[in-house]
Structures are given as C-alpha cells and as structure tokens.
C-alpha cells in the first residue's frame, strides 16, 4: 500500500505569533501545528523566523525569559523543519521579487519557500499573499483546518 504524499507547508512568522494569541487572534494556528506534529502535513520555515519572533515579542513588551522559552519551544515542534539559508537559494531568485515584496523579509521567506518547493505558504499577511500567490498558493490555517 502506497502512502499519500503529505501537503508541504511553509509557515510564515505570524502563524507562530498566533500560537500564543499575542496578536489577539483566535485562529487555528495551534490546531494546524498539532496536525503537522501528528504527521498530517509537512511543515517548513526559515531560521529567520526566530529573529522575527524575538523582535516582535520584544516590541510587545514580553519579558526576555518568556521570549527565550517561546523560541526554544518553536525549535522543538515535531515535524516542523527550520531551514537555514544557503546562497544557492538566492541564485534563482526572480529579479523583481525585491521590488514586489512589501518587505525584504517577505522576499526572504518567499525564496526559501520556493527553493523548498512547498505546496502552499501559510500566512495571514495579505501584502505577502498578493506578492506570492501567483507562484506559490497562499492559505490561512482556517482554510486547511475547517
């Protein structure tokens, strides 16, 4: 019996922020992470999210000790691979990506997701969605977990 290939998902930073409801959302990010941990999906993200998470949490006034605990937890999520950037990822970067991405960090996430050949990017960032949706489909956690 052949196994069905799992959907490969690139998780944007805001999905991890959503886990602790730090942004005031009551979405399904936690449930999506559980589904990834249980093997329903393959999860990928960039190591860059660790610095993004730390920066946003610091801006929100979260104590340093709590930020450390969150970052350690994120790195231990089962079945979520944190990928380190390599120069090879940027060699095939479309020339216009830095012009079309709202923020440079969105371009970085896009390049890593494209290099990994993921099926979908999971994000709540509408600016990011408008940039990447024509290359890699964008979804929210709620679209994956009805």
Automatic annotation (TrEMBL):
Matches recorded under InterPro entries: PIN-like_dom_sf, PIN_dom
The protein, known as: PIN domain-containing protein
Family matches, as SUPFAM superfamilies: PIN domain-like (SSF88723)
PIN domain sequence ranges: 7-130
Superkingdom assignment: Archaea
CDD domains named in the record: PIN_VapC-like
SMART domains the UniProt entry points to: PINc
Pfam families, per the entry: PIN
């Amino acid at each position: 019996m052949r196994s069905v290939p799992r959907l490969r998902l690139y998780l944007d930073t805001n999905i991890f922020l959503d886990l602790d409801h730090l942004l005031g959302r009551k979405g399904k990010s936690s449930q999506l992470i559980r589904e990834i941990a249980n093997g329903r999906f393959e999860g990928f993200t960039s190591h860059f999210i660790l610095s993004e998470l730390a920066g946003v949490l610091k801006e929100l006034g979260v104590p340093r000790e709590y930020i450390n605990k969150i970052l350690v937890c994120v790195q231990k999520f089962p079945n979520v691979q944190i990928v380190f950037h390599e120069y090879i990822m940027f060699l095939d970067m479309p020339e216009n990506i830095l012009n079309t991405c709202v923020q440079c960090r969105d371009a970085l996430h896009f390049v890593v997701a494209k290099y990994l050949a993921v099926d979908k990017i999971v994000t709540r960032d509408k600016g990011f969605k408008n940039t990447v949706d024509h290359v890699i489909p964008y979804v929210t956690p709620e679209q994956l977990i009805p």
